[in-house]
Amino acid sequence: MELVSQRSESRFAIAARVGSFYGAVTLAAVTWGALRGHANILLIDNSGSAAGLRMGQLLSSVALGGSMGLLLVLLTRYLQERFSWAQTLHNEFRQVLGPLCRRDILVVAAASAIGEECLFRGALMLHLFQAIPGPMGLFLGLLGSAGLFSLLHIGPSSRFVPWTVSALLMGVVLGGLFVLTGDLLAPIAVHFTVNLLNMSDIVRRALPTKAALA
Q: Which of 80, 112, 119, 167 has a CA 20 to 30 Å removed from the CA of 198?
């Protein structure tokens, strides 16, 4: 009975730590936006007229982001079937993450998606847009936020390099989606869907590598 209680407390601690960390990240991003006069970092255009027209678009943004996330998960599965580095990366993450329950996965997926998108797209990218008007600001905002985003995704060994590279590409895609839709819900939905489904798959199964099969 004590063992079950300790495991339950340990799992709760994981969710609490991750939720608290990304809650602080989100708060920092909102504060950053407010200090530069852009309190609602969920929207690129903070004018009253634009904000009043957003409700229908917000729902479509979530649907678009969820659909794109599913496509990216399918791409991940395809790469895992074809390439040994993708299989190795999957198994390395399995060792790093360890056994996670569904609640842990849900909390980590949601908290990281919201916190990272608010920080890198909602705060940093919009700051660069505002600081450097015109196409150059758009270019630097996309690449700058994507570059810093990828630095957050550096693993403990060279086997995680594909993860860092994919994070750079994902950062550009998510930034472009932010510009295209005008709101942050689509990037958050993509990020959440990818994290949730890929983490669930990582925890659920180990992949045989081509070297092992040979």
A: 119
CA-nearest of 158, 152, 189 to 59 is: 189
Examine the pLDDT at 11 and tell me if it is beyond 70: no
Phi, psi of 43 (to 5 degrees): -120, 140
d(CA 163, CA 170): 10
Reported as a pLDDT band with limits 50, 70 and 90, residue 59 is: confident
**In the chain, % of residues over pLDDT 70:** 88
The residues with which 183 forms a beta bridge, in sequence order, are 43
* CA 92/CA 165 separation, integer angstroms: 16
Q: What whole-number distance in Å separates Cα of residue 112 and Cα of residue 133?
A: 29
pTM for the full predicted model: 0.89
Instruction: Specify whether the CB–CB gap between 174 and 47 falls below 8 A.
Output: no
Split at pLDDT 50, 70, 90, the class of 2 is very low
Asked if residues 44 and 179 have their Cβ atoms less than 8 Å apart, the reply is: yes
Residue 133, φ and ψ in degrees, nearest 5: -65, 155
- Taking the C-alpha atoms of residue 157 and residue 154, their distance in angstroms, rounded to an integer, is 8
Q: What are the backbone angles phi and psi of residue 176, rounded to the nearest 5°?
A: -65, -35
pLDDT higher for 119 or 49?
119
Residue 146 tokens, joined: 């994507």
**CA atoms of 19 and 157, how far apart (whole Å):** 26
